[in-house]
Amino acid sequence: MQREYPTHPIVAVAAVIIEANRVLVIERAKEPSKGKWSIPGGMVELGGTVREALEREAKEECGIEIEVLELVQVVDNIIYDESSRVKYHYIIVDFLAGYETGRLKLASDISDAKWVERDELNDLDLTIGARKVIEKAWRIYEGL
Question: Which of 11, 104, 89, 106 is nearest to 50 (CA)?
Answer without folding.
Answer: 11
